Amino acid sequence: MKSPHTGLKRIFYAALYSWKGFVATWKEEAAFRQEVVLFALMLPLAFWLGETVVERVLLIGVLLIVLIVELLNSSLETVVDRISEDYHPLSGRAKDQASAAVFVSFALAILVWGGFVLDKLSNYWVA
Description:
Helix Hairpins, 87% helix, mainly alpha, 4 helices, 127 residues
């Protein structure tokens, strides 16, 4: 469905719909709430671990990727459930694949954060 709005009005409504999606995911998905809390807790650490703007953006960026992938996972699950809540192998596969994407995004975040933590700790061990 194409938006009837154009220009700044379209941007306003796009932001409004995005906010509605964020709120709906917050209300319906415990995993998303947990990941947002984790993001909020780790955000200050990104400023401590990262020594340059690029390092801080990388640390924060991989956390945002986890949230993005979780939003996509949740939206796919919602669509699959709308079609039918009955079990079907293809529905199960779609949900499992989306869940695997969340897992891979977490693995990326752990890899990046782990590298920074190890580097920071090695500076203390060597000094």
